[in-house]
What we know:
Mean pLDDT of chain B: 82
Number of helices of chain B: 10
CATH class of the largest domain in chain B: Alpha Beta
CATH superfamily of the largest domain in chain B: Response regulator
Strand order of the largest sheet of chain A: 1-2-3-5-4
Oligomer: heterodimer
Structural class of chain B: alpha/beta
Amino acid sequence: MVIVPTPYELPQLPIGPGEHQSVPRLSRPAQGRYIGGVCAGLAEHLGLNVRHVRLAFVLGCFAGGAGIAAYLFLWALTPQSLETAVPRTQPVATGRPVNESLRNLVVGLVLLVVGGVLFAQQHGVNLRLGILLPLLTVAGGAVLAWSQLDDAERGKWLVRGGADRRAGLVSLGIGIALATVGIVVLATQGRGLAGLWDVGIAAVAVLAGAGLIAAPWGVRFWGDLRAEQAQRIRETERADIAGHLHDSVLQTLALIQRKAEDPAEVTRLARAQERELRGWLYAGPRGSQASLASAVTEVAHEVEDLHGTPIELVVTGDRPLDAGGSALVRALREALLNAVRHGAAPVSAYVEVGSELVEAFVRDHGPGFDLDAVPEDRFGVRQSILGRMSRHGGSAALRRLEHGTEVSLSLPVTAAESHPVAQPDSEGTR
Amino acid sequence: MTEPRSVQPAPIRLVLVDDHRMFRSGVKAELDESMVIVGEAGDVDAAIVVVAETRPDVVLLDVHLPGGNGNGGSDVISGSYGVTAESGEPVRFLALSVSDAAEDVIAVIRAGARGYVTKTINGSDLTTAIRRVADGDAVFSPRLAGFVLDAFGAAAGEVAVIDEELDRLSTREREVMRLIARGYQYKEVAKELFISIKTVETHVSSVLRKLQLSSRHELTAWAVGRRLL
């Protein structure tokens, strides 16, 4: 690294008049920066023009590289500012496009290096260009690579992804390459290509040896870290579960104890709680709420809650809920209500959502009823099931089985789409 | 599922594996005298020992069990591999679960269980299911049938060209599964399709075989995740 005395030139900077106002803390702003935001931060802190500060740093580079050292020193020690502060002095470089930052970075570094070289040439022999140049290269590479560790840069990667991420990787790669070249040149001073080979082998050997010795520690450290993370996740989950159990299951158990003399109510409570807990435990991330399957499930649960009769619901396939689908769901609700009111448990419902046809079946095990024997006004069957389905291009059928009744609904998918909002389905069947 | 069966020559020998003592005693109270419980276990390791010692006809197996490799009922089945009942038939497993989570049920079926019923099943249905499994047939709940239709793409219209195809259901198998999903008993399925109950059982067993052997993505994806393959 560049070894330079203390950054004396900082106090040399002309002190501006704005200094005695409220002085912002020294920090590196995320915006309006060229390299690490040191100059911008410093200018803001001291109330100076950013350009002057930058110029001072560049000039400082010619004073034996002191500018570079000062810059690195400040970069390492100055925290990143949390708010995306814009330099208040002058509107230099606000809202700079992100893809420009990489170019600026490279240009700045090249300028720094050139400055160093010029300086070395001036003093010729003493400064040993052969050492200084590789050192500068290494420093440049390090800055380039480490800048990717910067919070702001990392944030940009994560948020924007794509091109910025690539740019970040490129600058990381360039940085590493620069540093490597610098180190190799430094190590092979005046020994030519053969020396390069020797040094390379030695370096690899040392690296391998160090890696071998450090590996177990590294692995253990990594393992510990992972274990700790897993532990923390588990604890969060446990707290989550405890909270949920308290809010739902314990409340229901308390209710059940108070209603112990009413078996129907107890069954209903237990069933509702079971369903809720199941939904919480096993439901993965489902699709949108407005899907046919979720609407069907909701309706089945609603009917179950109303009457306390368990409904064995099976749904296969799914599709978005459209007008036809809604009609089917309402007809299904009516069929389920009939089944739990007039049929006997077990009540089964099966909804199959195919690519061309949606079919639904509701069956109970009661004595069954004959549609023709049903008074016109009695059940919602005629209007709300048969009528509704046919209006949406589907059909409904009712059949008596040996044990119970089965209502089957079918709705062609194409028909469902061609009648978007044709029938608003306004008749209330409750 | 209460169709009369020919009188069993000997009672079916059962082992109950469930980590909830209350549930085990509940099941015991519900079974009739055609079954005798020869052993009980509350975790995977005890279950493997009990099964090997008692050599039952049927093991009633909870899907979620402590112990073993952490795979619950599946571990009991793989740990009891090769054990035969006193009759010489392989020991059969009927999975019992409170869980509707398809992956739990399919895991235990793919491990070798002959069927799956939920714990809310009533006593006579449970008896029928146990008999069926003891006879080497398969037991499907409506929900399992629905899952099968979904997993094999049958709900979306995929149908096997030849019956032997493992990754799809045949037309008849699909019809049987659909009727089971609609809540039909085997007897009703047979009547509906104008076939014998034996034929229904054959179809269901064939679906079970496909469920166990198929390499369809829907069936294997999570199995890989659970290190079952």
